[in-house]
Amino acid sequence: xxxxxxxxxxxxxxVMHTLEQMRKNWxxxxxxxxxxxxxxxxxxxSLLFSFYVSFHRWDGLTxxxxxxxxxxxxxxxxxVFLISIKNTFILLLWDIPFKVFTPLVLATLxxxxxxxxxxxxxxxxxxxxxxxxxxxxxxxSFFFNKNTGIINYLLGKIGIAPIGWLEDRxxxxxxxxxxxxxxxxxxxxxxxxxxxxxxxxxLIEAAIVxxxxxxxxxxxxxxxLLRPMIIFSAxxxxxxxxxxxxxxxxxxxxxxxxxxLTMLQYLFGKAFESFRLGYASAMxxxxxVMIFLLSLVQLKLGGGRR
Length: 306
Known about the structure:
Blueprint: H1 2-24, H2 26-53, E1 56-57, E2 65-66, H3 70-75, H4 79-100, H5 102-111, H6 118-126, H7 133-143, H8 150-157, H9 169-197, H10 201-209, H11 214-242, H12 246-252, H13 263-272, H14 277-301
Antiparallel strand pairs: 1-2
């Protein structure tokens, strides 16, 4: 009993000390309060409210109707939603190499002492990352136009028949992968380049003195040291791929048919076109669980000892 009372006194003392520190530093808390207020209103409240809405049938105007878990059950009976999951993961598997491996090659080349005009190439590779999604989609729609697009024009010069890039189910997916690859190369390249430039030169020089060639240095020193960047890049690319919205919405509209419809695009349609806010909220939480589990698996697989 005496031990428990002593523990309670210690905890009470800690709480009083914390309150005293807050009282003394109230000006600092006042200055940082706008962030926490905005986060509470637009972040935390929205998160909790959307979870509450996911158990209701609601169009945003009429009173909510309790729906229980029916929204979640209906999701996995919805053929279009299942198609959107399939499309999302197909596109993700296609473009992961372009977001994880090819940027590593570009970063390695830019980090090489043999490469000239490094600043020019870094800017050129990163420029697409800061380009508006609307602009990118419009430009690529011109490139991929079956009749007047520059890609089919160049293919025609070597005797290849025009391809219906945006009309064919297979080639529409390819178009999205190419757009996404071009758009995101720069970001991942900069991540790898920062990692490469943080590797001590003394380590490389010591390996050369010990007789290691460039391939051995890259595979046994550079890659292991870059593993945190590779994991980070894979997680970011996976999260972005599962949340893919702008590219299919602006370039293909989810078509032809449902060939390029993604989960986030379907969620947007249910929320802001069909006004099924409860159904869309349930879809959002399924999306969250997928992202969380995939990120966890990637971190677990990449978290072993070097």
